[in-house]
Write a structure and sequence with these properties.
Layout lengths: L11 E5 L3 H12 L4 E5 L2 H10 L4 E5 L7 H10 L5 E5 L4 H9 L4 E4 L4 H15 L11 E4 L2 E4 L4 E3 L5 E2 L3 H11 L5 E2 L1 H8 L8 H14 L9 E4 L3 E4 L3 E3 L1
Parallel strand pairs: 1-2, 1-3, 3-4, 4-5
Antiparallel strand pairs: 6-7, 6-13, 7-8, 8-9, 10-12, 11-12
Helix pairs in contact: 4-8, 6-8
Length: 242
């Protein structure tokens, strides 16, 4: 574990990878672009950093001794942890789909350029920022018994139970509820929910929508997010802004 100091106001990024050379190379590059960097070689070291620091994003390797990256990703995602960008030598489409299914917000195959990683990090962090002008007034949405507090980024099911959303799922949900009854193409969802700096394939959006759809299940027999064959997706519920 090697924290690399920078300005106090910059986002804190944690790199979890057992390759010390790669950890330090990425950390040095991101420091030059204004981030406060922390590194960890395994899950145990990662937990020490998370207890000591407020981490805004984790860059996570998959193949590591001890607890693997996919297990870490699922555990942190289910606990509502920081956004995760997976970086792995397993770069096949099925590997990326598995990573996204387990809660990753983005997935990069190794080797990748530090510049591309920087773009992905910026995109994920940007999705987590409050939209200008709305945070001051506060607003929320109600649909199919669900309540979404956009400012606090909290979703509650009709039963009152909190529903944990990843950054990508939250971005998708807000994209849908701001345009109920309208067909949104995959390209539109990619642009809105993942940022135009990412090279995202259609299947990744399908996976994100599938995960979100499962979390919204149980509100009735009809699906809230409908698949429109050959066109995209539509949010099929009445939405009330409060």
């Amino acid at each position: 574990m090697r924290p690399i100091p920078n300005t106090a106001s910059a986002p804190n990024i944690l790199i979890v990878d057992d390759d010390a050379g790669l950890r330090n190379e990425i950390a040095d590059y991101l420091v030059q672009h204004g981030y406060v960097m922390h590194t960890a070689e395994n899950a145990e070291a990662m937990e020490r950093v998370l207890r000591a620091q407020s981490i805004q994003l984790i860059v996570l390797d998959v193949m590591m001794p001890g607890e693997g990256g996919l297990s870490i990703c699922r555990r942190l995602s289910e606990a509502g942890g920081p956004p995760i960008v997976i970086m792995s030598a397993m770069g096949e489409e099925i590997d990326r789909i598995v990573g996204l299914e387990l809660g990753a917000d983005d997935y990069l195959p190794k080797p990748c350029s530090p510049r591309e990683l920087l773009a992905r990090i910026r995109s994920v962090l940007r999705r987590g920022e409050e939209r200008p002008g709305r945070a001051q007034t506060g607003y929320s949405y109600e649909f199919a018994g669900f309540h979404l507090d956009v400012v606090r980024r909290q979703l509650h099911a009709p039963s009152g139970v909190a529903v944990l959303l990843t950054e990508g799922e939250f971005a998708l949900l807000t994209s849908f509820i701001e345009r109920p009854g309208q067909i949104l193409t995959r390209d539109e969802l990619i642009e809105r929910a993942r940022g135009d700096e990412s090279e995202v394939f259609d299947r990744a959006i399908d996976v994100q929508v599938s995960r979100l759809r499962r979390k919204l299940s149980g509100a009735g027999e009809a699906e809230i997010i409908r698949t429109i064959r050959g066109a995209g997706y539509m949010f099929d519920a009445k939405v009330r802004r409060t």
